[in-house]
Amino acid sequence: MGLIEAILLTIFTAAKPLLIAALGELVTERSGVLNLGVEGMMIMGAVSSFAFAIYTGNPYIGALGAIIVGVLFSMLFAFLTINLVTNQVATGLALTILGLGLSGLWGEAFVGIPGVKLQPIIVPFLSDITFFGKLFFQQDIIFYFSIALLIGVSWFLFKTRAGLVVRAVGDSHSSAHALGVSVVKTRYLAVMFGGACSGLAGAHLSLVYTTQWIENVTAGRGWVALALVVFTSWRPNRVLIGVCLFGAVAHSSAWLQNSHATAFSLALYCNHRRSSDNFT
Amino acid sequence: MLDLLAFSVFVTDMEPDIANTLNNASDNMLAVKNITKLYGDFPANQNIDLHIKTGEIHALLGENGAGKSTFVKMLYGSLQPSSGEIFWKGEPVNITSPSHARKLGIGMVFQHFSLFEALSVSENIALSLSTDISLNDVTQKATELSNKYGLPLNPEALIGDLSVGERQRVEIVRCLMQNPELIILDEPTSVLTPQEAESLFETLDILKSEGRSILFISHRFDEVRRLCDRATILRFGEVSGACDPKQETSASIARMIVGSEVSLISKKAPQMSEAVLLKISNLSQPAATPFAIPLSNISIDIHAGEIIGIAGVAGNGQSEFFDAISGEVLSKLSTEVQIRDENVGLMTINERRKLGASFVPEERLGHGAVSEFKLSDNMLLARHKSDDVAFQRLGKIGMIWRDMIEKATKRVCDVMDVRKADVDPLAGSLSDGNLQKFIIGRELDRQPSVLVINQPTWGVDAGAASHIRQSIVDLARSGSAVLIISQDLDEVFELSDRIAVMFDGSLSQSLDASKTNREEIGLLMAGVDGNEGKHAA
């Protein structure tokens, strides 16, 4: 395996959960709801996918469970912010705190237990292509799904009527209401979609990335996904560039530390650039 | 025959108003019986009866706050009546939502536009259609309709980049797309030129001849008399009268609306002085966005004591012109704009204000005032620099002097007769007319020597508009230079001493208002200036 191949693979692994979570949040925010609970929904997805996977022995049921738990968790947020009109920022933060706490409590029983790994699906013939085969056609299902999701979300938002309704509700809910669009229903669905995506992104962490339960396994990835949505100015196609950039920087720091001292300082430099690029 | 007799016997047994409806069912498209809408204990509409025949243009008249909007919202399903009944083609209906109303065949053009700023024209239109048709088809159909009815549109333009007048066109085309049987038009002509309004009337006449009914809400009596078959007048939420507008004079209709005579503006002859207070020389500007209009070589002098009116169809560079004068957009050269002989082209808005200029932009909320701020806070926002002595204390520390600001706010509200529910309400809670009175009052209160207003009375009812116009005239006669930009030609003629027309980013020579007429101005607005001009889309 060539060096470039190895680097790209690690970047992909780091980028996948970010991509899925960011796309979900993007749709939520396009409908005019800011859900800061991505981190919380993600870690709930991570712990539930781990649990479902070891109880059933089937990682796919684990991933499905993560999606369901993500949706349920986001519905709590939707009920509070849409029905009870609570403050979105405060509710989102509370959701994150709740998720971190609940997952720690539930995951207590799983510490030290080996998890079930989601095996890669090797596409016949295509996987034999040099370089690209290994990168694109020997991946787990979540990878293929994330690519489909990217195309699907772009198509949905800009080519379908339902997507237009989502954007319209986000632009002016009062105008949308005047047109007879159900703002509540649209936002509920958008929030639930965001929850499903966050849950799946969490599942990736405990089914592919670590395959064991570690408390606080998300380690701020939900926040990175949130930042990515803004960073890419709410455009799905730019999210791909954003996650590759973030994935590369996140992994280069760890990888360069092992290789050389000068490389370490380069990583520091990259990290420094990253923070100054995005927070100024 | 026997059947019919039996039926009429049956009918007489029923409650009289239902019997009535059944009898009229054939020619009534919409009948409203005894509609009441309560907000808490406050009746916004009380016992309103109204029926619209098939193929008639029915006017609904009334001042702001008379309950017109509440009433039409109930017809369009955005609001539910507290009591009373609505009959659609003789059948009692309960209009539950706007989409239900559209399904019945009721279309509406809103006064407060219900457009999405971040979306394009064709996307906005597509949203209001219930069937799922492709965006290309929508674009094509919208273009067809807009050409047919003389409402030029660029389907790809973003709503956020369009002027008020252009947005109105989008609203009208959007409504026509649904092929409605009853069309509710809320103040549709207030931003159109006489020619455009006339072509809209022709459209409406065609729609009427196709058997559609139109409910036409307007403040302009001459229009109502030109267009409408019948009129219902609302006052304080109740029907105060019904008439055939063709049999009435403007004054008699006005009396029914206001309950008393509307005072005409008293306008003394201008006492022109030689002093030029606002001077625009060779103002040119490239277009800032793909949909903006570039300004080319605009020059005009405004003397102390006179009012200059800038007429023109929406989207011919008026907003860009206003922004350049007010300092929202800086000019290339400082000499392009001069206020009281000072070159201000490169100065900020507040620096220009400090020289004695005042500006009233077109958009009231978000530009002229912040809707979530109280009136007193809006007062401070606009005048904290120009009135720092009055509104701030402790010198450089600049503590806000609440008492003084509240006093000034109260003064403005009293002078301009701003009607509000609270002592110091949020700006967004005021009606259009009252908010505009407040904003103009806030600027007039400074006694500015130069006043520039974009669309002084757009969407403002007759009583408030005449109040605003009178105070503008009074300011000019006391020696200030006033520039008004308006799409309302009546207003331009009523106020101005000289009139210039803006077309495609350039300004015509100014004409003496007493020596020109509507036709001449109308031609200039359409770009016919001896030279060949193209009509701006």
> In the CATH classification, which architecture of the largest domain in chain B applies?
3-Layer(aba) Sandwich
Oligomer: heterodimer
Low-confidence stretches of chain B: 1-25, 530-537
Provide the low-confidence segments of chain A as ranges.
Answer: none
Counting DSSP E segments of at least 2 residues, the number of strands of chain A comes to 0
For CATH, the homologous superfamily of the largest domain in chain B is named as: P-loop containing nucleotide triphosphate hydrolases
**Approximately how much helix is present in the residues of chain B?**
25-40%
**Tally the helices of chain B: what do you get?**
19
Query: Please, how many domains of chain B?
Result: 2
Number of helices of chain A: 12
| Shape descriptor of chain A | globular
Q: How many beta strands in the DSSP annotation of chain B? A: 23
What would your notes on this structure say?
The complex is a heterodimer of chains A (280) and B (537). Chain A contains twelve helices and no strands. With 280 residues, chain A is mainly α. The mean pLDDT of chain A is 88. The longest helix of chain A is centred in the N-terminal third of the chain and has 28 residues, at 3-30. Chain A has one domain (3-279): Orthogonal Bundle (ABC transporter involved in vitamin B12 uptake, BtuC), CATH 1.10.3470. Chain B folds into two domains: 56-78 and 95-258, P-loop containing nucleotide triphosphate hydrolases (Rossmann fold, 3-Layer(aba) Sandwich), CATH 3.40.50; 276-525, Rossmann fold. Chain B is built from 19 helices and 23 strands. In chain B, strands 13, 16, 19, 20, 21, 22 and 23 form a seven-stranded mixed β-sheet that branches. In chain B, strand 17 and strand 18 (399-400) form a beta hairpin. Chain B is globular and about 70 Å long.
